[in-house]
Each structure stands twice: as structure tokens, then as C-alpha cells.
Design brief:
The protein is α+β, with helices and mostly antiparallel strands. It has helices spanning 13-17, 75-78, 87-91, 106-123, 132-157, 164-179, 186-193, 197-208, 212-230, 235-241, 247-258, 262-267; strands at 4-9, 22-29, 31-36, 39-44, 47-51, 57-62, 67-73, 101-103. 51% of the residues lie in helices and 17% in strands. The strands form 2 sheets. It has a 5-stranded antiparallel beta sheet with strand order 1-7-2-5-8.
Length: 270
């Protein structure tokens, strides 16, 4: 598996949806329809898709005039990026799978496309600059920080054209994204959103095919996987950082979701 791939293409599914990769995909022309959990979503010109290795995304349809530019990369590549302090917190703006589609302004589109093209040029074998790898990593870091800045604005615009149930589910997802480490009980979210835990969980499940509690678990496990793969924190430190009662309860939950123990997962990246 290559650690990072930059692409510009008119055709596709493997480039977009390969397992084991984080992906950033910008639609330059045409459209792309995807299955996200229990819903179908269509990306159109000017929109960007952010996905992680655990994202449940399936290709449904693509237009004949589709043109995309993007990149995909592995956890191993992320470990090389030293310019980002506390990288896992920066990346948490868009690592989860529930709000992966953003609509960019014309200015944002231009910035992101220019950086993706710059990355593609940095990656070409013809680029024999003595510091080519370092320049590539710096450009990647610049792209990532631009996305973090853009992502911080998305919450202000994301609720347009949603019905009441969708609005509630999106409110929960954003609140969960910001609070899942410290607030692990569903009561907290239901109280903040002025609904019962049963109504919240059923509403979220109808829209995402997962209960609200399952989403909280997914967010914690996604962060655990990132920390295990990219940080020097011990399993015990990760367990307590994510508010598990004990390392053993963390290990049990992790194995139920991922299929292997945190120790075995971490050893893959040593």
C-alpha cells in the first residue's frame, strides 16, 4: 500500500473509496452519488468529501462528465508530519464519518484546488528538487490546516434545508464531535438538545443506521485508532484520555469494534 497518492481523474471508484486510507476528494465537474450509512448523498461541483479508513461509504452513481481531484493517505504517512503539533486534535475536525461533505465558497475552492495541484506536482517523478519530500510534506500540512480552517466555518451553514429530524441528528453529531472524549453518556446529549434519550437515539438511527450511543463509541474508537497509530501514548494513557473507566474496559470495547486488541493494533505501526 502506498502511503500517499495524489490524483486528478475523470473516472474512479477505487481512487475514492479504497479501504485503509484517509481521503480528500474535490468535485471539479459533474456529480457523484454515495451511500453514507443509511442515506444517499450527491456531491456536486464545488463540494469536497472528507473520509477516514472507518467511513462507511459506498459508490452509487457517477455522472459521465465527472472530474475530480484529491488525495488519499495512510496513518503511516501521518506519522511523518512533524510540523503539526498535536496532530490528532487538529485532524479531529473532519476525521469522523457522519458529516463528511462540505460546500466550499469560490475562494475556498480555489485555495484547495491550487494546493492539491501543487501536491500533485510535488509528487511527480520529474520533480528532482533536493528537498522534494520536505516540500511535499509542507504543502500537505498547508492543505490540512486550510481544511481545518474551512471546517471550523461549516457548522454555521450546515443546517440549511434540513427537516426537524435531520436538524436534531446533525446537532447531535456536531455536539458529539466536540464532546465525545469527556461526555460518554447519552443523557448529557439528550439534555443539551432538550429531547429524551430514546427519541434522540431513534432519530439518529433512522438517519444514520446507527444509534446515538453507537456513534459515540465510533468516535472514541476512531480517535483511539489514530492515537495508537500515530502517537507515543501508551494504551493506558489513551484509555484515560478517552474517558474509559480502565484500560481493560477500553481494550474490551476496542476489540469488539475493531476485531483485534489495542496492543495488536499498535504493533502494526511500530
Amino acid at each position: 500500500m502506498q502511503e500517499v497518492i495524489v490524483f486528478k481523474t475523470k473516472s474512479t471508484s477505487k481512487l475514492v473509496l479504497d479501504k485503509g486510507y484517509f481521503s480528500i476528494l474535490f468535485i471539479e465537474k459533474g456529480y457523484l452519488t454515495l451511500q453514507l450509512g443509511a442515506q444517499e448523498k450527491t456531491l456536486t461541483q464545488g463540494q469536497i468529501l472528507i473520509s477516514s479508513p472507518i467511513s462507511t461509504i459506498k459508490l452509487v452513481h457517477l455522472s459521465s462528465n465527472l472530474e475530480i481531484i484529491g488525495l488519499k493517505y495512510t496513518i503511516d504517512y501521518l506519522k511523518e508530519i512533524k510540523a503539526l503539533n498535536d496532530f490528532h486534535q487538529t485532524f479531529s475536525y473532519f476525521q469522523h464519518q457522519y458529516l463528511p461533505i462540505w460546500t466550499l465558497s469560490f475562494e475556498e475552492q480555489e485555495r484547495i484546488v491550487n494546493l492539491l495541484i501543487k501536491l500533485k506536482n510535488r509528487k511527480t517523478p520529474l520533480n528532482q528538487h533536493i528537498f522534494a519530500p520536505q516540500l511535499f510534506n509542507l504543502t500537505f500540512t498547508e492543505l490540512l490546516l486550510e481544511l481545518v480552517e474551512i471546517g471550523s466555518k461549516q457548522d454555521k451553514n450546515i443546517f440549511q434545508n434540513y427537516n426537524r429530524a435531520e436538524y436534531l441528528a446533525l446537532q447531535f453529531m456536531i455536539l458529539a464531535r466536540d464532546s465525545y472524549k469527556e461526555q460518554t453518556q447519552l443523557d448529557y446529549y439528550a439534555e443539551r438538545l432538550n429531547v429524551t434519550t430514546k427519541y434522540l437515539s431513534e432519530t439518529v438511527k433512522n438517519l444514520t443506521n446507527k444509534t446515538a450511543k453507537e456513534i459515540l463509541v465510533d468516535l472514541r474508537i476512531a480517535q483511539a485508532r489514530l492515537l495508537l497509530g500515530t502517537s507515543d501514548l501508551s494504551i493506558t494513557e489513551i484509555a484515560y484520555e478517552l474517558s474509559y473507566d480502565s484500560p481493560s474496559s477500553f481494550s474490551k470495547s476496542f476489540k469488539q469494534v475493531v476485531g483485534i486488541s489495542p496492543k495488536a493494533y499498535k504493533e502494526q505501526y511500530i
